[in-house]
Amino acid sequence: MATVSRLSAPGPAASASPTLKPRSSQSKILIGFYGGSNFNAKVSSSRLAVRNNPAIGGPLVVRCSQVDGNGVPVKRTVLHDLYEKEGQSPWYDNLCRPITDLLPLIASGVRGVTSNPAIFQKAISSSDAYNDQFSWSLNSRVAKIKLLEYARELVQSGKDIEAAYWELVVKDIQDACKLFEPIYEQTDGADGYVSVEVSPRLADDTKGTVEAAKWLHKVVDRPNVYIKIPATAACVPSIKDVISLGISVNVTLIFSLSRYEAVIDAYLDGLEASGLNDLSRVTSVASFFVSRVDTLIDKKLEKIANTEALDLRGKAAVAQAALAYQLYQKKFSGPRWEALVKKGAKKQRLLWASTSVKNPAYPDTLYVAPLIGPDTVSTMPDQALQAFVDHGAVARTIDSNVSVAEGIYSALEKLGIDWNDVGTQLEAEGVDSFKKAFDSLLNTLQEKGNSLKFVSL
Fold this sequence. Notes:
The chain is α/β, with parallel strands linked by helices. The chain is built from 18 helices and 11 strands. It has helices at 39-45, 78-86, 102-107, 117-126, 129-132, 135-138, 141-156, 161-186, 206-220, 236-244, 257-273, 291-304, 307-311, 316-331, 335-341, 382-391, 402-414, 419-452; strands at 30-31, 47-52, 60-65, 88-93, 113-114, 194-197, 225-230, 249-254, 284-289, 349-353, 376-380. It catalyses: D-sedoheptulose 7-phosphate + D-glyceraldehyde 3-phosphate = D-erythrose 4-phosphate + beta-D-fructose 6-phosphate.
């Protein structure tokens, strides 16, 4: 396994609510992309257009074409309204090559990206783009030769597979940061972030996590990168230390109110310990996971199996999230917070993660529509994003039924649901899932690396 000290910067070659709506049968918004010559050309000269494609029977199709100034203005979506009317930033929970596939999403109102080891495992293992580098967009023999030469260099120079993995990841993050940089600049550093996670193997390593965060921050070298750190007991102190160094952090894998409060305290402690007179460029989000909570608690309720328990299925996650927002409002107010505001500090925004619906019996916007509120982020994978753009309603919902949320939370406790135990189990499962995805990807890369030794040009 590579250690942080051995990793080097990539070289040029690597450079159930009344507000919810049932599933709709109307036409979906499909997002597509026309490839161009290279990454920089795509970024500088792409023109986004929205066209009705009669061959598809009328659904709106977003395309990205290389037309100089002749593109049709992109139609507004509910994602624009989500941000402009309710102050919630819609982010995309996915990343793969070609990175320029993000351009139509940005035009449709997406304002940031989150990634994790499982996302990269899927992207790199299933995509030819990481074998042929730019050949997906170029489709040329020259690009393939360059990639194979570079891959051989990695293998022959003795770089281990984990180092090679980070080179691939860092390039993707850097390229995505470039696309979102205009949003970052327009919002004075409040939005437009791309998140990259430290190795999941460090989830129980306080010091190792700090060193890994420092290294990632240095090699990515983009102002709008978030370093993702898991909210494990061992890594909560890491959050404080990393924030104190002036590094912006996305705290991930938060499943309980108690752990969430510890994360907020770590952020505040870090700001206070930084010694910085200007805290305006140190920002953070706290990724509070949603759907996985219902998945676990629903199973517990089905084992209890009485009417009260069964009636509470599909309600636990949104209820806890609503209470998390109440905690957010409480913690980011009062004398302590006001003292930090005088130095330019920004609130650590709540980010709703795990927003895809796992149970097909539930509305497909269940983990988006009831969690709309100011100073929050909702990161959505394809399923949730498409569903909300198609038939989501924009309205402030996060604190519209706080008393109902409190009642659900208490009712679950009376049934024997221990919220802290739920959080602990989900955290362990989340870490284990990311570790397995990470290890699986490294094995895949090892196999690809070995095969490249025998490729003949």
